[in-house]
Amino acid sequence: MRLWVDADACPNVIKDIIFRAADRVGVETILVANQYIRTPPSPNIRSLQVPGGFDAADAAIVERVENGDLVVTADIPLASAAIAKGALALNPRGELYTSDSIAQRLSLRNFMDELRGAGIDTGGPAAFHARDRQAFANQLDSLLAKRKR
User: Helices in 1-149 by DSSP H: which ranges?
Assistant: First the structure.
């Protein structure tokens, strides 16, 4: 199992949780972004900088992700593509996307995108709270513990 992080929009507090978990359990962790991402010195953690461009980081992850890997992303199309390749996808707020839930989330995302395209203000995501950080940490720990069994 490798842990892929869609690092362009991942909150720093979530990256810190990922760094600690990667070292604690020894899982290979790759942060993918179209800009330089600083990572702590660790044999388990590295960054992959991809050329700029729309969804370049997402495309790089999809190209490399394998069955059984874990992708951390809030990007619904990336999560859907990862699940289609047999990977797990985890939102930085702790929601584990499944093959059952991703179709609904993708449909809702596309609907909201159409509304925004029509000029309707749909608001943004809710503020990131400590409970989101805790939910993510709990879910990540659970997934990594299952990996060891």
Answer: 12-25, 56-64, 76-84, 99-117, 130-148
pTM: 0.87
The reported pLDDT for the residue numbered 113 is 76
pLDDT digit string, tens, across residues 92-136:
999 999 988 877 777 666 666 776 777 877 676 778 889 999 999
SS3 at position 148: helix
70-72 and 45-49: which strand pairing?
A: unpaired
**Rounded Cα gap, residues 142 and 136, in angstroms:** 10
Angle between helices 76-84 and 99-117 (to 10 degrees): 150
Contact present, 23 and 45 (Cβ < 8 Å): yes
Per residue in 1-24, pLDDT tens? 999 999 988 999 999 999 999 999
Residue with tokens 């879910």: 139
Residue 38 DSSP label: -
